[in-house]
């Protein structure tokens, strides 16, 4: 580095000496020509010196401009996603010292990004492993619970607690399944296979899925939308996502409440709205409901585990869609999903 710096200093002095030499030659010529006029001689000498200085300054600042532009291009490449982009700083000086610090910062940022990626990969693999390991004992517990129910006879106590046990086992199984799905989405191992699907048919399937629960809880489901609207999507995954939002609506409504599913088509988007007139979401929670395992301190729901809505959001975004929520306490909640219609060129 010092050798390169010395070369740079020598080159700089060479330019200065060249300018002085040119000035001296030109000044000597003019002095000989104008030997009898001292004032003119001094004026021309000064003019020559000024021109020489201007030429030197122009060359110097032009070189500095090229150096800074090159550095800016490297920084732009890094911001654009090239982790190997670095600024050349093989020489000495304040400017190159700054470049060295920028390169050090880039290395630190890369190290942090790699550590974060490894931590995320570890968490994802851990969740997937635990979920897979839980599936076998869960299946065995379901079998044991079924045997107990069959042997209960007329014992109301055994029937009651085996029924409660079955509910809890179903909750754990749903949790495990959701964990597996989220882990697969994070890993990118799930391929979203899109096809032209009728939105009305998909919403009808969701209505049939919740029909028994709606009857049990004495709640009403209302569907409305154009029967001819179609959407490029993965039918199973999208039904899973919207079904989770509908389930959330059931969890936060009371007897006699209504859950509406409406779909519309605009010029550039297809919109699906899931709306209820239930308890609503506290304003403090609105920005957190899509976080995994988030539990509101205001919620009275003891059943949810905080995975349904994050899973729904992940699936919708995998379809290049967006989801928004609007809610008012005691009035109800509305989830609005927008899917961009691909432009046909």
What's the arrangement of secondary structure elements?
Blueprint: H1 2-33, H2 38-79, H3 94-151, H4 156-187, E1 195-198, H5 199-216, E2 220-225, E3 230-233, H6 235-251, E4 258-265, E5 269-276, H7 308-318, E6 321-328, E7 332-340
Parallel strand pairs: 2-4
Antiparallel strand pairs: 1-3, 4-5, 5-7, 6-7
Helix pairs in contact: 1-2, 3-4, 4-7, 5-6, 6-7
Strand order of the largest sheet: 2-4-5-7-6
Strand content: 5-15%
Structural category: alpha+beta
Task: Calculate the mean pLDDT score and round it.
Answer: 78
Low-confidence stretches at least 5 residues in length (pLDDT < 50)? Answer: 1-6
Assign the CATH architecture of the largest domain: 2-Layer Sandwich
Organism: Caproicibacter fermentans
EC number: 2.7.13.3
Enzyme class: transferase
Protein name: histidine kinase
């Amino acid at each position: 580095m010092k050798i390169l710096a010395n070369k740079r200093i020598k080159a700089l002095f060479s330019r200065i000496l060249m300018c002085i030499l040119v000035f001296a030659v030109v000044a000597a010529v003019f002095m000989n020509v104008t030997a009898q006029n001292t004032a003119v001689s001094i004026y021309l000498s000064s003019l020559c010196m000024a021109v020489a200085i201007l030429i030197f300054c122009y060359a110097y600042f032009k070189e500095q401009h090229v150096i800074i532009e090159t550095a800016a291009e490297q920084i732009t490449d890094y911001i654009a996603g090239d982790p190997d982009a670095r600024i050349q700083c093989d020489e000495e000086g304040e400017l190159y010292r700054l470049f060295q610090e920028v390169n050090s910062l880039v290395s630190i940022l890369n190290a942090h990004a790699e550590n974060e990626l490894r931590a995320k990969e570890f968490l994802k693999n851990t969740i997937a492993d635990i979920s897979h390991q839980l599936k076998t004992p869960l299946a065995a517990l379901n079998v044991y619970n079924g045997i107990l129910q069959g042997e209960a006879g007329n014992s109301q106590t055994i029937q009651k607690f085996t029924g409660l046990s079955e509910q809890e086992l179903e909750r754990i199984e749903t949790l495990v399944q959701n964990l597996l799905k989220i882990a697969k989405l994070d890993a990118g191992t799930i391929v979203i296979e899109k096809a032209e699907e009728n939105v009305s048919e998909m919403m009808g399937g969701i209505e049939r899925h919740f029909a028994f629960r709606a009857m049990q809880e004495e709640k009403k489901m209302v569907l409305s939308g154009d029967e001819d609207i179609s959407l490029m999507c993965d039918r199973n995954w999208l039904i899973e996502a919207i079904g989770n939002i509908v389930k959330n609506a059931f969890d936060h409504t009371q007897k006699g409440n209504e859950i509406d599913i409406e779909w519309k088509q605009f010029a550039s988007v297809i919109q699906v709205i899931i709306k209820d007139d239930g308890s609503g979401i506290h304003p403090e929670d609105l920005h957190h409901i899509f976080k995994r395992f988030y539990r509101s301190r205001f919620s009275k729901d003891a059943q949810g585990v905080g995975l349904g809505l994050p899973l729904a959001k992940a699936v919708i975004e995998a379809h290049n869609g967006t989801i928004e929520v609007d809610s008012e306490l005691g009035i109800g909640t509305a989830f609005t999903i927008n899917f961009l219609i691909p432009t046909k060129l």
